[in-house]
Write a structure and sequence with these properties.
By secondary structure, the chain is α/β, with parallel strands linked by helices. Helices cover 36% and strands 12% of the residues. The chain has a 7-stranded parallel sheet, with helices on both faces. The protein has a two-stranded antiparallel ribbon with strand order 6-7. A two-stranded antiparallel sheet has the order 10-11. Helix 10 runs parallel beside helix 13.
């Protein structure tokens, strides 16, 4: 499931509801000096904020992947080989101004003739395939388990416990946000009526002197919003409306046992049927933005004077639409991986995940298939602040602790704050089951309809690493997928600092204990190591 970030407004709630009053010679700086790098104390500039994941820890005191340094010093004018990167995700805006030039086209298929020209089983799959058909809204996996009503299912009890915890939480949250919305709306009406205009300013509000209790309370609400960097009560209402949209989707679709979401005509529990869906890989609405954002992190056209720069040049993005607004189906994921492999992808990005997976064996078999076919599979670690060595997160690449793939990379997320807050508070971690960390908080990238926004998640960290994998495969095509994974893990920066884990200031651990490599991915170092290994 793609992660929806609700703006908590917890402080606002309290105020309004409860009263207003690797080897040393390839490291970009000597490894022993990494932990002595200065902390950046100033706020990031807009340019830095939009590009921080590409910056260099030593030069910029920002824990990026040294991508810009790699282009300036290593890639320069070298010609690389085109690499197909499959983005298994929600729909991708393949017509976006910063992506359209880097979209994969199936040259063996004749567009829109209603025939399977290349014989791969998928009709008119020009830019990829859409396993969701016309569907988008879905339940969470544990809700689907409960809806089946099979109490003998080994996951049923855990699913029920999760539901009993989550459903009341979102009901309460909806009640709170509805109350907040109505109070702010009423305050806006009172102020507009008193001031005789709807577009009143902060100065107008501050100048109000009154003994009227309702007007005074409205003034306090407005001043509180101003103090939280909201320019107006109307802006606050729009923020809450976005939050309510997410809460309502959670209650109406994700947590609704009676909701029937799968509309592609396929049985998700029958692997004998493989050819369903359609060739429309685009989002069905603008809010279906996750896949477009992920694709831009990998492949937004570099230095074209438009919104964002992707990590990799020489890439073609293959769109495989399997991730709905809710939890993805294991069958769609497994077939999506196989589709990508069979149609030439050399790198696959999977920025999705869930805690229940009834057919996890199908997905593991597909991951093993990708490994056998020399394809790198990069997967987001998840955004639950959990240790995935203990808490389940799917898909994974191990059975009883034994890995079934040499090319699967699981990625945790970094923030731009070098120091104790280096690890993003939402990021999952795990000494055994997370391989590396990469930039994932507040990442600026493409959004549908030629838009750009900053959002965060391990969903953003994974494509950063997929981009590095694509760079290696482009400039050193003789290296195997397993070698690419090893380079990414071995060439990162090994940080010895202690960091806050899971956003809990009381939980401080060595960064090295949070992943198998104990390192931050570094594109500059990876390319140097790749050059040495390819000789």
């Amino acid at each position: 499931m793609r992660t929806f970030k609700l703006i908590a407004l917890s402080a606002v709630s309290a105020t309004i509801l409860f009263g207003c009053g690797a080897s040393g010679d390839i490291i970009s700086t000597p490894v022993e000096n990494i932990d002595n790098s200065p902390l950046k104390v100033s706020e990031l500039t807009e340019a830095e904020a939009h590009n921080w994941g590409h910056l260099d820890l030593v030069k910029d005191t920002i824990p990026g992947m040294s991508v810009d340094k790699a282009y300036a010093e290593l890639i320069k004018k070298k010609k690389g080989k085109k690499v197909i990167v499959a983005v298994i995700d929600s729909g991708i805006d393949i017509d976006h101004e910063d992506l359209s030039a880097n979209i994969w086209t199936n040259s063996d298929e004749i567009p829109n003739n209603g025939k399977d020209d290349d014989g791969n089983g998928y009709i008119d799959d020009i830019h990829g395939w859409n396993f969701l058909g016309k569907g988008y809204d879905e339940q969470l996996e544990y809700v689907r388990i409960l809806a089946k009503g099979d109490t003998t299912d080994p996951d049923y009890k855990r699913a029920e416990e999760t539901y009993q915890k989550e459903y009341p939480k979102y009901q309460e949250r909806k009640t709170q946000y509805d109350q907040i919305y109505q109070r702010i709306k009423r305050a806006d009406e009172i102020l507009a009526d008193h001031l005789g205009k709807k577009d009143y300013t902060k100065d107008d509000v501050n100048a109000i002197k009154t003994e009227d209790q309702d007007l005074n309370q409205a003034k306090q609400i407005a001043q509180y919003m101003y103090s939280n960097n909201l320019e107006s009560l109307n802006a606050a209402l729009k923020e809450i409306e976005k939050d309510l949209e997410g809460i309502n989707e959670r209650l109406n679709y994700h947590l609704n046992k009676d909701f029937k979401g799968r509309v592609n005509g396929d049985n998700a529990n029958d692997m004998s049927t493989k050819y369903y869906g359609d060739a429309n890989v685009k989002p069905i609405k603008k809010s279906e933005s996750h896949g477009t954002h992920v694709a831009g992190i990998i492949a937004a056209v570099r230095n074209n004077g438009k919104g964002a720069n992707g990590v990799a040049n020489n890439v073609e993005i293959m769109s495989v639409r399997v991730v709905p607004n809710g939890d993805e189906y294991d069958k769609d994921v497994a077939l999506g991986i196989r589709y990508a492999v069979d149609n030439g992808a050399q790198v696959i990005n999977g920025s999705f995940g869930k805690s229940f997976s009834p057919h996890s064996d199908w997905v593991r078999e597909a991951i093993a298939y990708a490994s056998e076919k020399d394809v790198v599979f990069v997967h987001a670690a998840g955004n639950d602040s959990n240790n995935v060595d203990i808490e389940p997160n799917f898909p994974d690449d191990n059975i009883d602790g034994k890995e079934i793939s040499e090319t699967y990379i699981r990625v945790g997320a970094l923030s731009p704050n070098y120091g104790s807050n280096l690890v993003a508070g939402f990021s999952n971690y795990g000494k055994q089951n997370v391989d590396v960390f990469a930039p994932g908080a507040s990442i600026y990238s493409t959004f549908p309809e030629n838009d750009y926004k900053s959002i965060g998640g391990t969903s953003m960290a994974a494509p950063a690493v997929a981009g590095v994998a694509a760079l290696i495969r482009s400039y050193y095509p003789n290296l195997s997928a397993a070698q690419v994974k090893q380079i990414i893990m071995d060439s990162g920066l090994a940080i010895k600092r202690k960091v806050i884990v899971g956003g809990d200031a009381q939980d401080v651990r060595p960064f090295a204990d949070l992943s198998k490599s104990g390192k931050m991915v570094n594109a500059y170092n990876a390319l140097i190591m790749a050059a040495k290994m390819s000789k």
